[in-house]
Amino acid sequence: IPAIWDHIFPEPLSVDAAAQQRALAKKTSAYDFIKGDYDRLMGRLGSEDRAKIQSMLEARMRLQEALTLVNDREQNRPPESILDPWTLLDEGYQKGNLQNRLWDTHVDLISQLVAAALHTDTTRVANYVIELPPNYEVGYTDGTVYSGTTTTDWHDLVHKVSGDAPELTDPAAQQVAFDLEKATYDKLAALLAHLDSLPETDGGTMLDHTLVVVYSHIAEGSHDTTRLPWMVIGDAQGALRTGRYVRFPITHMDNANQVGQLDYVNDQYAYSQRVYTYRGRPHNDLFLTLAQAMGTPLSTFGRAMAENKGLISEILT
Questions:
Q1: What sign results for the dihedral spanned by CA atoms 259, 265, 266, 271?
Q2: pLDDT tens digits, residue range 66-120?
Q3: Could you tell me if 64 and 57 are in contact, meaning their C-beta atoms sit under 8 angstroms apart?
Q4: 70, 85, 117 - which closes a domain
Q5: Residue 1 pLDDT > 90
Q6: Which CA distances in Å does 165 have to 42, 113, 220, 221, 222?
């Protein structure tokens, strides 16, 4: 954690901050000069020409607002005291000792560092993995028996309560699996709340200016990859429709036109060198949609797949 802090906020920051302020002052001065010329010109024009000039002036005003929405790294850097919980942690785990809650402390600190990096404009993109919590966070113990079925660990437990015909239907076991996932999403909610607490110069918050894409590498514990739950938080400055649940049909394996394969057997960079069978609409279309919503004029994203349909119109405004 301290190494991440040093990477995001190297010393000194003042040089960057000063250069940023000089650039901003130069842009503001040029804008004010141009606006003065516009104001003098407007009184000499007819209504039609005045409307055109006014439209141009409003466009420049929007550009100026975007230029001034620059986050001062020095001003927005959080105090280094946010790392204090990390220095107080003890190794190992003792029930009831909050200083041993490594996962809980680690996730919270990483969330704060991600938010700080975005807020100070150190980066504009962040990849963040929230791992499932350790057993003690949800009161589970390796080897717990449910309705006569032994679960060796949480991984085994999740397998046994998942799928269309789960091996284990005991409500207590299902609750543990639910609690594992809920703990993860509670941390996501905390990250969003933290982003929403960071003010921006236009009166909004960091959350207002952030697009968050949430996903899992599998749909549920049986390693299903055809029903992945994708979540998009944010509207990309009005480009996306929010508050919606969009579901796409899952195609049948016997339909050769709707089923494809991804071959990674000879890919030296692949995590697993094997052939994957997929069905249904791929997430390539989601990434393409998000790219265009954020102003990147892509026409394709990733490999061409059987069910690629292009932009997802259901989430566009």
A1: positive
A2: 545 545 556 777 787 888 877 777 655 555 555 457 788 888 989 999 998 888 8
A3: no
A4: 70
A5: no
A6: 73, 41, 13, 12, 10
β strands within the chain, DSSP E: 145-146, 149-150, 212-214, 231-233, 259-263, 275-279
Collect all residues with Cβ–Cβ distance below 8 Å to 277 and sequence separation of at least 6: 253, 259, 260, 261
Last residue of a domain, one of 70, 97, 128: 70
Q: Within its chain, how far is the Cα of 257 from the centroid?
A: 33
CA 228 from centre of chain: 16
Assigned domain for 23 exists: yes
| Distance from C-alpha of 103 to C-alpha of 132, rounded to nearest angstrom | 9
Report how far residue 291's alpha carbon sits from residue 283's, in angstroms, rounded to the nearest whole number. Answer: 12
The answer as to whether 41 is a domain residue is yes
The residues, ordered by sequence, that sit 6+ positions from 164 with a Cβ below 8 Å of its Cβ are 222
Query: Dihedral through CA 176, CA 182, CA 183, CA 187, nearest 10?
Result: 170
Residue 240 is given by DSSP the state B
Residue 53 lies in a domain: yes
Contacts of 272 (CB under 8 A, 6+ apart): 264
Please state the φ and ψ torsions of residue 54, each to the nearest 5 degrees: -65, -40
pLDDT digits (tens, 9 = 90+) for 236-270: 989 999 999 998 877 665 655 555 666 677 777 66
Q: d(Cα 113, Cα 103) in Å, to the nearest integer?
A: 15
